Each structure stands twice: as C-alpha cells, then as structure tokens.
Amino acid sequence: MNTLGRRSGALLALALAAAICVISACDSGTEAESIQTEESAQVQQSAEQQAEQGSTTARPAAPQRGARPVSARGGDSDTEAGSVRSAVEVESRSVAEPGFVVQLLHAADMDGGVGALDNVETFSALLDGFRRQMPKRTLVLSSGDNFIPGPRYYAAGEQSLAEILGVPGNGRGDIALLNEMGFQASALGNHEFDLGPSALASTIAMEETEDGWYEGARFPYLSANLGLADDEHLRGLVAADGLAAPLPRGSLARSVIISVDGELVGILGATTPHLAWIAGVGNVAVEPADGFDLDALAEVIQDAVDDLTAQGVDKIILLAHMQQIEIEQQLASRLRDVDIIVAGGSNTILADKTDRLRSGDWAAGTYPLRMRSASGEPLLLVNTDADYRYIGRLVVRFDQRGLVMLGSIDPSVSGVYATDKAGRPATAGEPIPGVSRIVRSLREVIEDRDREIVGRTSFYLAGRRGDVRTQETNLGNLVADSFLWLARQFDPGVAVALKNSGGIRDQIGRAWQPAGAIRTDEVVFAPPAANPASGRRAGDISRFAVESVLRFNNGLVIVPLTAQQLVALLEHGVGFDGVGEVPDGRFPQIAGMRFSFDPAEPPGRRIRSLAIIDQQGRVIDRVVERGILVGDAEREVRMAVLDFTANGGDGYPFPLPAEGRIDLAGETGQYNPPSPEFPDTNGNGLIDDAVAVDPGLFDFAAPGTEQDALAEYLAQFYQDVPFDRAETSPVEDRRIQNLSVAGARDTVFALDQAR
C-alpha cells in the first residue's frame, strides 16, 4: 500500500506503528477496499466532529451557512462567551480522542480596489468568531497576493497614516490589516513582486526612524521555488527553512513549522514559475527554468516537503500561488506527504451545497476538493474568491499517522463564508478594532481621490478577470483607444495599440444578481453608483476608478514593428491552452485593428484574419487573410503599448532593444520584468527623458503613463457626453473574434465591405 513509509524521520517508532496498522488493513483486501473501510469509519465520527466544531444542535439538513442566525449555534440565549466556553471544552476533550482536529481559516488575492476595504471588517469578525470557537486548534493562512500597487497600496504612504503605521509606506496598510487579524504565514504571490524586490522588502520588513517605528509583517512569507537570498534587497530577511514559528518580522523562507496545541504543522509556500514573465523578480532565481514543466516544479516543492518530514512533521499544508487552480490540481497528484493545498491567484470559488454565495457568484467546484497524492494518500485542496469577499474555513481531523480523515469534514461547518452584510451573523464575532481603525484611515485618503471626476459612462465597463482575460470588452477597448490617442499626440503615424488584460484590475460599475435569480445570465450590470461620501454622481468615473483599473500605471511606449512581428505578438496573445475560456493575463485588448482567431489551430497558426483600420473602422491594411500573412512581411507598423509588455512582460516577444522605440514617460524607473535594471530600451546609448506629450487636463499621474492616458482621453471625449458603448457577448465582438464561439463568423473584412 502506498501509505507505507509515510512521514519517516524523527518519529520513527510512530511511523512503524502506523505501518503495522496499514499492513493489517491490507491483509484483508485491496488498497481501495481498505481506504473505503477507513473512510466509512470516519463517517461514524462526524456527529462527534460537528460538536467539536462548535455546532450544538443536530439538523436533518444544513441551512445555508451565511444566512444562519447566531442562535442556531446554541439557542436564543447563547452568548459569544458561552459559545467560546463550549468550544474550548470540546477542544480540550478532543485531546484524549484518537487523531487531531485543526481549523484552517484562509484567504488569498486581497489585491482589489476599495472592495477589499468594504469586506475586510466583516472578514475579521468572522475570522475572530471562528478562532474563538477553537482557540487552541486554529491556523490563519494566506496563499499570497496580499497587496498590489494601486489606490489602497499608495494610500498607506500618506503622512496621515503615521499614527496607525508608525512609519507610513506603500503597501504597509495591507500588512497592518493581516497583522491585526493574526495571519501566521503567507505564500509569496506574483503581486508581491510587482515593483521588484526592493519594494517588497520595504513593505514587509520592520523600519525604525526618528519619527516612528513600523513593525513589518509579523508572519513569514514562504516560497520553496524562489531563490530569495540571491537578491541583495531580500537577502537579509531570509531565515532558515523549517524553523519553528514565530520568526523575526518580515522573514522569508521556504517553510515554517507552527505548533498547534502541541502538534507540529509544516507550512510551505510555492510561487508561479512564470513569475519572471509577470513581475519584477530582480536577481531572484525562479525554479524551474521551464515554467511549464510541472514535474520539475513538483520536485522542487517535494524537496522542501521532505525537509519537513525528516524533522518528524506529519501534517503539512502547501500554500500554492499558481494563478490557475488547474495547476494546483495537477501538482496534487505529483506530491507526497502534503495533506492540504491552499490555492491562490485564480480567484476560484469552491463551495459546498450549504454555502451561501454572494449575488452573482457561482462555485467552480465543491469545498474542499478531495484528491489523492502521488502516494495515494488523501489530499484536500481549498480556494476562495479575492478581496476578502469570503473566508475559507476547513475543520478536519488528522489520524495518528498524520493523514486527513475525509469523513470528518462536516459541510455545514467547513466551506466558504460570504463577508457581506448577510454573512455577519455566521458567528458572534465583531470586527477587530485595529482592522476598523486601519480601514477608516485608508478610506479617508481614497475618498479624497474619489472626488476628482475624469469622465462619465452610461454603461457598465467590463473589467472582471473572467471577462477581460478571455474576450474583447468595452473597458478593454476604451483603455486601448486611450493608448492609441495619446501616442498619436506625439506621433500621428502610430497605427495600433495593445494592452495586456492582466493589467486591467477592476471593473467600472456594478454587477449583482437579483433576489430569486439562480442563473449566471441573470446578473445585472450597471454603471457606477453615486457615492454621497465623496459627492460622486451616478455614472461618474473618478480618479479613484482610473487608479483602480490601471493600478500598475506603467509607461506608454511607441515601438516600430514589422507586419510579421505584429502577427507574432497577436499569436502569442491567444497562444495558450483554453484561450477564450481560461483567464490569462496575456490576452490582448486592442485598438486600430481587428483580428479573428481559431483556438482549434495550433499556437502560431491561430490568427485567421487581421486588418489595420482607420478611425472610422475602414480597413487600410490587410495583414492576414485565411491564416496567411499577405503583402510585404517587413512593412512597418507602429504600435502603442506599455513598457511592461514591450520589455517582455507576459512573455510577449517584442524586440529588445528596439531601434526607434520612444518611451513617452522616459526610460528610467520602468517596470521591467524580470529586472528593473533595463534603462536603454532603444539601444541608442542614451537614457532618454520623457517626451512632451501632456494634454494637461489632469496631473495626478505622470505624463505618458497609462493612468494619465485614460484620464486625459475620458476628459477629452466623455466628460460631458457619457461613454455609450455597452458590453457585448463574445459572438458579437468585432475587434477580437473568437471563431470557436457558437454562432461566430469571421467578419474582419466583411465589416468594411458592408459599409
């Protein structure tokens, strides 16, 4: 049986005893039969397990968790103190019972705009309430992307935050929130590296100045596949792997061991191996070199797991920030001795039938996903949505061998809890006061920015991850149009523009599901609502919205390309598995051109038609017809694009350096993955300054940057007359036509002929 020999190390006698028990089980039947017998026995303990998790009444069918009143946990007279005492008593009693129960509270991807601040107080109330129910047996973990450059990130750098943070600094408000809630470890996500290792170190490390003291992250950041000590900015923060928590503030490691009521739990992290494509890693080495080699990635992670088991740790949790939950699922079957994987980066909601989801949300799978490791042992995978919109809660028993007992999971207790107003009664907890203080301070800064209006819209502008990374959207078109417009202020010969959709971080407007609606196609979309606190009217687009959508605020560049290079760039943009269905940040949003693509064709042969068009939508250059490049392959096409993308971000194959390239915001201080040290982008031997391209209607962002382009464009065309182009379904999209969509047909050239 594959579980023989599991958890070798310091506790050899216990491992041998467990092996003897397994051999006995195998003698009476097959491995599959023994697993089934074990899980059937676990089901008999579910009622007892439910009591240990804080539920005091038996129910024939569990109601929706988020809608459950507090009294359901102990009657109308049940107080918070009473609930805590009951949980503590049960928790103490369980010590004498076989196995070990742990409550895992988890989150990831808290990288949204103001929405995260709308949710985090209720999140903290639920977290605190659940922790009080099992005070000795609770772990609070994140799988990464705890902050991102944007309004909330930069608001923490305002001097008004000194009283809260000690020393204000970008991103430090997000770390302070996690500290107040008692997070114990986090994976390193890709957004932690958005501004490079130096900015990461400044955000998580403690700092003392004449004016105050910033405590840094009280918890360690973990990643098994990053060479963190290779970078001079991070080297001083790197601690030895597998040390017992707590570690020094701001520590970085592969893994940490946390004692939970006397039991050792190993926590390790892993980061997407495509990190250098999408973030600034500096000198940090990313393993494996081939980011698509999952076997090699699993070997790197397994090495860190083996270090933990060699120390006698037999309960292991992997915080995996892989960006796509399918990758975490594929890793599960390649790893040994990992019990729970907390996924991150994909914003995927997993939920069971007792979970009440927010309006408009739906589950992509059950909570938890039950899987098998490489050695055939049970493994659980959990994930939930971003921006503190849900808190994940997994209460599970481990047996004496350190294996999760699948039958111990009660769906009326474990699952995801919505952090909207209706979700508050799920526990008797109240918002953590320190969290509320930080939220108020950040809001004051952000509301000032919401008072500055740059334009108006009559329609919802689609920027949600699942939309903008799979298809053309009206917001993607608007952003790309602003790039092309601003670039033409300097060079009227610029023909096309491209925006990587991974850099569009928010919608502009509201999306909700009406009461009683049950289908995803019943979601209602509307333009922005009024904000009485800031004086913003309904339909107004504020500075805050622009900063939220384009949080990275990269610089715009003009790059001369050949027609052949243009085709190669678009082929890369749609050249991934599941294009049109699986969200990917490289998916392009475009202006000045139309193209069709067929996902059924192999990558590199997917572009079927491509036309460059004028401002009236007329075709002025037929570039690809029936999948064939036509005309002179070397003819020049000038493109407006971000420096991030032109420098190889998201893997785009732009020429580097590019002769004749013009950096509108200048060549210094760019966002250049994998290293920020890349100043001479056009190879002319000079470090070029910003060029004179500033319409001057707004000045909150530097001239030549993407935020300035969008704000100036909106002010020029949509300040008095609202933007009036509604979002369309994929079959109706015209700039980007996915020929695999039912009913779609190639109209790239037919549109011109129909005029």
Can you offer a commentary on this structure?
By secondary structure, this protein is α/β, with parallel strands linked by helices. About 25% of the residues lie in helices and about 20% in strands. The strands form 8 sheets. Strands 1, 2, 3, 6, 9, 17, 18 and 19 form an 8-stranded mixed sheet that branches. Strand 17 and strand 18 (about 405) form a beta hairpin. Helix 15 (about 475-490) crosses helix 19 (about 705-715). It is globular and about 75 Å long. The N and C termini lie far apart (about 70 Å).
What's a concise summary of this model?
The chain is an alpha/beta fold. The chain has 20 helices and 33 strands. The strands form eight sheets. Strands 1, 2, 3, 6, 9, 17, 18 and 19 form an eight-stranded mixed sheet that branches. A seven-stranded mixed sheet has the order 8-10-11-13-14-16-15, covered by helices on one side.
Structural key phrases:
755 residues, alpha/beta, 8-stranded mixed sheet, 7-stranded mixed sheet, disordered N terminus
Mean pLDDT: 86
As a percent range, the share of helical residues equals 25-40%
The Cα radius of gyration reads: 27 Å
Largest beta sheet, briefly?
A: 8 strands, mixed
- What proportion strand? 15-25%
**Low-confidence regions:** 1-96
Number of strands: 33
> Which structural class should the secondary elements be placed in?
alpha/beta
- Spatial separation of the terminal alpha carbons: 70 Å
Report the total helices: 20
Shape: globular
